[in-house]
Amino acid sequence: MCKRGVPFDGVTVNTVLVGLCRSGLVDEAARLTEMLVGGRGIGSLDVVGWNALIDGYCKVQDMAAALAVAERMRKQGVPLDVVRYNSLVAGFCHSGDASAAWDVVEAMKADGVEPNVVTYTGFIGEYCKRKGIEEAFNLYEGMVRLGVLPDVVTLSALVDGLCRDGRFSEAYALFREMDNIGAPPNHVTYCTLID
């Protein structure tokens, strides 16, 4: 593109950033961002570009870098939305820092962004993986009391947690109840029970 004099635009930059981050090349994506925003291409990133960087850093569990990108976004007047907050929550949960993930939820609420089913499911899934099934069910019940209804991912995580805890009859009972809850089992749920 450069050799032919075709300028970079937001779509091109976002496509490259998303591709690099999905491939785990987040530092390369950050360097490209600095090069392009630093005067050789575009004025600033849009929400898609920023989101790609945050999500990329969360996936490689570099939470300090993810938070730095989020802060930089804010300074440039780009607010965090529920999707970015959920990336940060998931990143902290996956890295085993539930306390920091809850801090993100508090910041989210302070910014007027309400946690959704994805937010809560991030915690529930991690609690279940770490054999914290009681914590997972307490959070599930609290989520429902707040009017946030579970989806198939939430319920599949709970089925998985019950299976990991050796509570197979309860897992099967929840599996059978999923249709009535409005989130019919999917292939993941079936594989969890079969496994």
Automatic annotation (TrEMBL):
PPR repeats: 46-80, 81-115, 116-150, 151-185
Transmembrane segments: none
Domain of life: Eukaryota
UniProt entry keywords in alphabetical sequence: Repeat, Transit peptide
Record Pfam families: PPR, PPR_1, PPR_2
InterPro entries documented for this protein: PPR_rpt, TPR-like_helical_dom_sf
Family matches, as PANTHER family: ATPASE EXPRESSION PROTEIN 3, OS10G0484300 PROTEIN
Protein name, UniProt field: Pentacotripeptide-repeat region of PRORP domain-containing protein
